[in-house]
Design brief:
Layout lengths: L2 E4 L1 H4 L16 H17 L4 E3 L7 H9 L8 E6 L1 E3 L11 E3 L3 H11 L6 E6 L12 H14 L2 E6 L4 H9 L2 E2 L2 E2 L1 E7 L11 H6 L3 E5 L17 H14 L3 H12 L4 E4 L4 H7 L9 H8 L5 H9 L5
Parallel strand pairs: 1-2, 1-12, 2-3, 3-6, 6-7, 7-10, 10-11, 11-12
Antiparallel strand pairs: 4-5, 8-9
Helix pairs in contact: 8-9
C-alpha cells in the first residue's frame, strides 16, 4: 500500500492543522492513549510505513513503545533530525520547535532514534533549507554517509517553503565518497502546492523514493469558510467526492498518489475516524478530467507558504 502515517499530530497535542471542530488535548495521558490507538488502527488497515521525528513531541517514544507490541519485519520507520520540540506540551507555548542543523544536534538526536532499529529504514534531515547550509556541511554529510553504510539506511531530507525545488536540485548533487547521499525526498505536495511536479520526473528517473507530506495542506483543502479564495476548488472537490462516494480528504490524497507515481502518500490523521476516511482513497481512481480540474487550482508557492505561515498552533 502506497500510504503511510505521519505522526506529527500524534506526538504533539498542538499542531498547525486547520481544525473544523474544537478538541481537548489537555490530558496528556489520554492524548497518548488515543495516539497509540491510531497507530494500531493504521497497522490493522494495512499501513506499514510510519514517519516520525524528535520534533514531534512524544512521537518517537510512542512509536518505540508501539513497536514492542509487533513482530513484523515489514514495518518501516522513517525519522528525522534537526528540530527540537520545545513546547513541553503547553497549549500557550510561544515557541513549539527549534531548528538546528549542526553535527552536535545530529549526534544527539541519533542516540535516541537509533533505538528504532531494525525497523528504522529512512533517516532524514528535517526541513532542509539553503539558509542553514546543511547541504554544504561536510561533517554532517560524512556522518550521515557513515550511518547509511553502517546501518543500511536510506538517507533523505524533507522540504518546506517556496524553494523546495531548488533545495532538491542541490541535494541531488551531494555526493560522499563518489556516491549520491540522498535516496528519499519527503516533499510538501497537494493540488494547491504543485511545485514538486517541476522535478518529480527527474527524481523518479534517478530512482529516488518520493514521500508526499501535507497532502491536505494542513486541512486547507477541506471546505472552510475562512478561505473563500478556495471556494471554486471546494465546490469541485465536493462534487468529485460525491461522485466517488468518499470524503474530500480521500480525493485530495488520491490526487497525490496518481500524479506522483509510486510515491508514498502520508496521512496526517490524528484520530481513527480520520484515518478510516483517508483510507477510502484506495477504493477510487480519478479520471483524467478530474485530475486536470484539480490541477487547475494550483496557487503560487509564495502565496501558499505565506498563508501557511499564518496558521496557528491549536
Amino acid at each position: 500500500m502506497n500510504l503511510g502515517l505521519g505522526t506529527a499530530a500524534l506526538g504533539r497535542p498542538q499542531y498547525i492543522n486547520v481544525r473544523l471542530e474544537s478538541c481537548d488535548n489537555s490530558d496528556l495521558e489520554i492524548f497518548r492513549k488515543q495516539s497509540f490507538q491510531v497507530l494500531e488502527e493504521a497497522y490493522n488497515l494495512g499501513l506499514r510505513y510510519f514517519d516520525t521525528a524528535p520534533g514531534y513531541g512524544l512521537a518517537e517514544k510512542l512509536l518505540l513503545e508501539w513497536l514492542q507490541t509487533k513482530n513484523d519485519s515489514n514495518i518501516e520507520i522513517a525519522t528525522k533530525w534537526g528540530y527540537t520540540y520545545t513546547a513541553n506540551f503547553k497549549k500557550n507555548a510561544k515557541i513549539h520547535e527549534v531548528k538546528e542543523h549542526s553535527l552536535a544536534k545530529l549526534k544527539e538526536q541519533w542516540q535516541f532514534s537509533k533505538q528504532l532499529l531494525p525497523h528504522l529504514k529512512v533517516y532524514q534531515i528535517h526541513s532542509a533549507t539553503l539558509e542553514t547550509g546543511v547541504l554544504e556541511n561536510t561533517d554532517v554529510l560524512n556522518y550521515l554517509s557513515d550511518l547509511k553504510t553502517k546501518f543500511n539506511l536510506k538517507i533523505g531530507l524533507t522540504t518546506t517553503g517556496t524553494n523546495q525545488v531548488e533545495v532538491i536540485k542541490k541535494a541531488l548533487k551531494v555526493k560522499v565518497k563518489n556516491e549520491s547521499l540522498f535516496d528519499v525526498f519527503q516533499v510538501t505536495y497537494n493540488f494547491l502546492e504543485q511545485s514538486l511536479l517541476k522535478i518529480s520526473d527527474e527524481l523518479i528517473a534517478q530512482n529516488k523514493k518520493l514521500v508526499i507530506k501535507e497532502a491536505l495542506a494542513n486541512g486547507r483543502v477541506l471546505l472552510n469558510k475562512n478561505y473563500p479564495n478556495y471556494q471554486k476548488a471546494y465546490n469541485a472537490l465536493e462534487k468529485i467526492a460525491a461522485k466517488h462516494k468518499v470524503g474530500a480528504d480521500a480525493i485530495a490524497l488520491q490526487f497525490c498518489k496518481q500524479t506522483i507515481p509510486n510515491s508514498v502518500v502520508l496521512s496526517g490523521a490524528s484520530s481513527k475516524t480520520q484515518l478510516q476516511q483517508n483510507l477510502k482513497m484506495v477504493d477510487i481512481f480519478l479520471s483524467e478530467e478530474e485530475i486536470a480540474l484539480l490541477k487547475s487550482f494550483k496557487v503560487l508557492p509564495e502565496n501558499y507558504w505565506a498563508e501557511r505561515k499564518k496558521l496557528l498552533w491549536n
